[in-house]
Amino acid sequence: MKIALIAHDKKKDDLVTFSIAYKHILQQHELFATGTTGQRIMDATGLEISRFRSGPLGGDQQIGAMIAENNMDMVIFFRDPLTAQPHEPDISALMRLSDVYQIPLATNMGTAEVLLKGLEHGFIDFRLLAQRRGK
Ligand SMILES: O=C(CO)COP(=O)(O)O
Questions:
Q1: What is the overall mean pLDDT for the chain?
Q2: Is 127 in the pocket of ligand 1 (CB under 6 A)?
Q3: Tens-digit pLDDT profile for residues 48-76
Q4: Does ligand 1 come within 6 angstroms of the Cβ of 91?
Q5: 111 Cα: distance to centroid of ligand 1 (angstroms)
Q6: DSSP count for the chain of H helices, then E strands
Q7: What domain of life is recorded for the organism (predicted)?
Q8: What is the residue extent of each domain of the chain?
Q9: Which among 10, 20, 46, 103 has most CB atoms closer than 10 A?
């Protein structure tokens, strides 16, 4: 499965902690991230991650493009709901595309934990069908 990892600045520590805790699951999948988030997680975990641009410079849009191409299976996006972001339209667009294409999207650690455990137990296997349909 292809999983995107994204966190706003005030949530990056949480995502790093989460990635350490769930490294055993994450390492079985193909990981992508926005620029700074990806670097932080790689440094802390040693996981291999394909990094896009930083969010404000287009990273959210690049991940959105992968979703539109049926090329992303899950998005874990620790949003900061208390801080205004300069690229709010890009963030909304990414979440919108996740809904358009029915891609599992976790916007906080509670949901992310359920998603990764669901992934571990095969609950996200509908994406395998979607991948085949897209080819
Ligand atoms: O801004 C972001 C998501 O909207 C994240 O970007 P960075 O990972 O580069 O900080």
A1: 96
A2: no
A3: 999 999 999 999 999 999 999 999 999 99
A4: yes
A5: 19
A6: 7, 5
A7: Bacteria
A8: 32-70+87-103, 106-135
A9: 103
